[in-house]
Amino acid sequence: MISISEAISIVKSNSTTLLESCYKLVEKAGGYILSEDVKSPINMPPFRQSAMDGYALNLHDDLTYQLIGEVKAGDALNPPLKPGEAVRIFTGAAVPDAANAVMMQEKVENQGKTINIVHQIDLELNIRPLGEQVKTGDIALKKGTKLTPAAIGYLLSLGITHVNVYRKPKIALVTTGNELVEPGQDLTYGKIYESNSKMLLSALYNLKFYDITTYKVEDDYKQTVSTLKAAVDENDLVLITGGISVGEYDFVGKALKILEVKEHFYKVAQKPGKPLFYGKKEDTQIFALPGNPAAALTCFYVYVYIALQQFMNREALELPRTEGISRSTFKKRGDRPQFLKAIYNDGQVDILEGQNSSMLHTFALSNALVFMPGELNVISENDKVNVILLPN
Q1: Pick among 2.40.340.10, 2.60.40.420, 3.40.50.450, 2.60.40.10: CATH of 321-387
Q2: What is the pLDDT of residues 140-192, one digit of tens each?
Q3: Residue 88: other Cβ atoms inside 10 A
């Protein structure tokens, strides 16, 4: 059995970055990382653009201007303006070539056919210049940029429809157990509803990982071997829940040995999630998570999250941590470090009841985990605690 810090270090040192590139539709590329620079095919804005509703002016020495027309957003008009002439203009509209300032409407007195300016005018006032954001041929976004909603909008505003991005991992979710039935079916005596796969699927979707295949395997040795072989052969990351302990019907560990998966560690000195396995076969990483739901989800956030971030070559591999002041008292049993379900708000932390590894009802309320070191037996009110912020 190894320590938490050792386990984290092993996952970090064995996680790999996916350097393969794929071509994605921009609107479906959210959360991906650009695998090459993206150059702008146009100037943005592609014309001199009004930043205000107001009046485009060809400046002269007087404060009165003749109003000769109107330009709306989307109009392909370029009226010639003599000095002292103006057109009504709206935000986003193309500023006529002859105009050299736009005065907002609130600072203009409209007299019908003439307008009077009641504020100082500066050259190029309220005009967005051609190519202010980016010029044709310039780099719009650099290689390595994560595509956020703003980045997606920016690329689409340049007319870019496809980009080259780093491929995201193919992920397998394998659930084991004869006792599991699908929600919606009748719950007969001795059975429980299967929740781990959908829970982890939701966690992966929340992190923008979508290429996921789910597998269900009963407590049967041959079926476990064949299912895990398919999962390992066809995916970059395999997440298994249950079957990793040493009971007579826990076949996952035996199957991984037969499949020649290299074990990097098995069992971590922690609570929940002691029976955690991590290994690799060639470039495929395998996590065998505990079957208890709260333990499985805790291990996902503490360990699997690291591998997922490394796949995408992100700098921050672990979830963010901060300090908080406990508003609760908690007494720990035993000497293992513990991850406690908690609610963090503005520096204050409430450690919740129901910390058992099988209990999800308090995890459902949590937005954080409090890390309680092994040497600490009690957390009291007003104690400083180490807080892991969950990506909810």
Answers
A1: 2.40.340.10
A2: 999 989 999 999 999 999 999 999 999 999 999 998 876 666 677 676 677 66
A3: 19
